[in-house]
UniProtKB/TrEMBL annotation, chain A:
<dbReference type="InterPro" id="IPR050763">
    <property type="entry name" value="ABC_transporter_ATP-binding"/>
</dbReference>
<feature type="domain" description="ABC transporter">
    <location>
        <begin position="2"/>
        <end position="229"/>
    </location>
</feature>
<dbReference type="InterPro" id="IPR025302">
    <property type="entry name" value="DrrA1/2-like_C"/>
</dbReference>
<dbReference type="InterPro" id="IPR027417">
    <property type="entry name" value="P-loop_NTPase"/>
</dbReference>
<dbReference type="GO" id="GO:0016887">
    <property type="term" value="F:ATP hydrolysis activity"/>
</dbReference>
<dbReference type="InterPro" id="IPR003439">
    <property type="entry name" value="ABC_transporter-like_ATP-bd"/>
</dbReference>
<protein>
    <submittedName>
        <fullName>ATP-binding cassette domain-containing protein</fullName>
    </submittedName>
</protein>
<dbReference type="InterPro" id="IPR003593">
    <property type="entry name" value="AAA+_ATPase"/>
</dbReference>
<comment type="similarity">
    <text>Belongs to the ABC transporter superfamily.</text>
</comment>
<keyword id="KW-0067">ATP-binding</keyword>
<dbReference type="GO" id="GO:0005524">
    <property type="term" value="F:ATP binding"/>
</dbReference>
<dbReference type="InterPro" id="IPR017871">
    <property type="entry name" value="ABC_transporter-like_CS"/>
</dbReference>
<keyword id="KW-0547">Nucleotide-binding</keyword>
<dbReference type="Pfam" id="PF00005">
    <property type="entry name" value="ABC_tran"/>
</dbReference>
<dbReference type="Pfam" id="PF13732">
    <property type="entry name" value="DrrA1-3_C"/>
</dbReference>
<keyword id="KW-0813">Transport</keyword>
Amino acid sequence: MITVENLRKTYGDFPAVVGSDFSVESGEVFGIVGPNGAGKTTTLKMLAGLVEPTSGTAEVLGFDPEDPAMRRKLGFLPEESPLYEDMTPRSYLRFFADLYDVPRDVADERTDEVLDRLDLEYRDRRIGDMSKGMKRKVAIARSLVNDPDLLIYDEPASGLDPLTTNVVLEFVRELRDEGKTVVFSAHNLFHVESVCDRVVILNRGEIIARGTVPEIRAEHGETTYHVYTTVELSATDGFPATEPEGDRFVAEVADMATVEEIREAAESAGGRVADIRTDEASLEDIFLRLARESPTTSAAEGGRGRS
Amino acid sequence: MTDRPSQRQDSTANGSTANDSTANGSTANDSAGGRVSGLRTRLAAHLRAIARIAQWEVSRSAGTVDRKTIALGLIGALVAVAIAAGAVGSGVAIDQDLYRVGIDSDSAYYDAVEQSSVLEPRPLSDPNVEIVVSNTHVSVKETQTSRAAYQAFREAVQSYNERQMAREPNQSAAFPVVVDLQYRERGALVPPGSRVDGGSGDGTGVGGGSDAVGGSGDSSGTTGTVGTDSSSGASDGDGSVGSGADSTAVASADDSSLGASSLGGMAGIFGGDTSGSPASISPPFPFASLVLAFAFLVPMNFVIQAYGSSILNERVNRRGELLLVAPIAPGDIVAGKTLPYLAGMVGITVVIAAAIGGGPVSVAAVIPIGLLFLSSTFVGAMFARSFKELTFVTVTVSVFLTTYTFVPAIFTNVTPIALISPLTLVVRDLGGDAIPLGDFAFSVGPILVAALVLFLLGTGVYREEDMFTQRSVPLKFLDALDSRISRPRSIATLSALSIPFVFIAELLAIAVLFVLPVDVTVPLVLVAVAIVEELAKSMHIYAAFEKARFARTVRVSLLLGGLSGLGFFLGEKFTAIVQLVGLPSLTLGQAAFAPSGIGIATAAGLLVAPLVLHAVTASVTALGARQGKSAYGLALVGAIGIHVVYNMQVVNALG
């Protein structure tokens, strides 16, 4: 569906995207994760043919991204989706359907269905009089007006209330179930974990991790063991000193061998291990750690502020 | 990846792109028929997209205007049309029937009074009159109004008599002495050392003989002229009143390159006659037609406000981004958004032309002005960062273009420089003059091409990477230039495309400077020409280097400089059109255009010299541009210096 090889974009001396390589398979939800300024939006816009790469290649749906034929099969939702506020959702969607040569009756039927699913009632009200969530739903409906095979969504739930966010994320899952391919970016990692099949993590324009969320967690994540004992233990070479917590004591360690050492030490001291709890690293934790460890790849600080 | 073939087939089914058809049927493209079919399909797709954008622009814009505004606009337009129509139908006559004249219908003066727009005939019995005319006696009251009415009566009778005389078959008998007023180039009118007001002759000379007026004088040799005939040296008739056996000289369209044209039947409202009895002549100042021609410009100033807002609206908050990701070319979007405003301008122009008596020439002359208004506003709206800046842009466009088109038209009957404005064509068309094709092309061509080039530049930055950035106007200008550069030969193309702007700027310099003494203006024009041309040849090279389009090496700089010089030289050939309107007959015209080696016979041998000049100076600036802004500035000064020296040498060589 999408193949990207050594894709690079620089603005003057500022490298927004540094040699990306990835591919997206048909029917999957692919996430591009990273903080502001990581290069997510630039990457998506290069895929949508809006931004010309400085070097490297991208093939989308078998076409060069700037090929109008590709755009006929693409639904794009930018991060900011300012609409023409004097229009109504119906006239707005009809206009875009016309641009994609979608017959009027097909367009009406399609947009009615999408707006029903998104629970947007006011279809003949001025867009300018609508809430942000409603406008976002109209924008999502517009991205589907041409029944695209590929959807590129840039921060689709950004700035929405939790209820609308859930509607949007659930809608993305439904699109995947219908066989659509969705590429979407987010800096809210919970959104990514909840809907993405595979992700790449970008930092300062560079991919620093990739794979499914479990794969990334296995490769880059850490499990923390909270070991609760009935006696206080002082630090040794093998484990840290326990800290009092209520009527027990707790130590945080990183592996089961150390847990075993604590158990032995507790029993030697006349006590025992009362409880063991594990904390799996979230994608956010992994991302933060990777971002800290990632070498500075550019003079990005103070650079041109595109994300 | 497995579904690529089917996707291409789907795209082909939509039948909207050339690539689709290419993918689907390679044999079709092998044949000429297939290529034609492909072109037709692509053209149809473009037109369909443009029509949809245009339709949407109309409906969306209509939605932003409330009904009251529409109604007020329509009323205003109707009033304007009515006023214009009234002005043409009856002249500009706020003094219609100002004075009442008691007069018998059998009186010999009745027709004179009746035909006067100022006087209103009343029966002799009417007590409410300013003057009374009975037989040969005129009764005037001791009031100021009555005396003014008497003066108007005298003028009415005089005009009536002249009209009657003009109908005489034997014009020599009717007008034994005729003064023909013609405007002449000042350099030719005032010989060195003489004074305009003094005159070297006292009217004692006898005109006649060869009368080489501006190079295209009346060959009949019967025209006497007021003024100096020094350009030919064939006559010494300074201040002479020409006469002859058949000296019924009438200024006509073909008797002077300086455009002392006949005012036809509308002379009465066009500011007076240029020939006739001495009492009736007045300078050929086409006041009424100028006012009427101005009516074409007024609506344009309003249309560009709406148009500029519409363009900028696409850029505010990235609103137009979704159009860019739709399967439409940016050029189609721009064309679709522009079309309604252009159509509106054309519609208004046609209505105004119909109302004031303008013909197709007036409409054809005004449309390029409208295009230039729109294209300038488009580029301005693409460069402006806010509605505040857009306001500055539209006001600047309004003021500059209104001035550029209106002021030269004032000199319609004085100098061919007036033809730099298409409005001059309108004034002449309203005056009933035939417009030679050369004049039309000279006047309209540069403006039309300039408008198209501006649209081209603006469309170059109608893309995501340029539309939504908050860069300063100069940087956006460089972006626009760079957007049209993809390979070295683009440099030559851009240099050639700069010619209309160079042409307009140089003509403007002439128009501004021609009132000064020739000794001062010629050097100034030569410097202005050098500045304009060196900027035109180098700015896009600087933009390309700044955007890292080419390697900053000496070899590349010399290549780009050479290409720029070549493109400019070839494009400059289009300025040969000045030959068609006699501009090189002016000293300033020679100064501006002859050094470039175009058309002047004595400069034919220097054909290669301008090419060398342009290549050398463009290479100098390119070498500077590769090293950055400061070096470019210094190199530009140097190139201008070389150009000025060259111009001076050529002018001296040409004598």
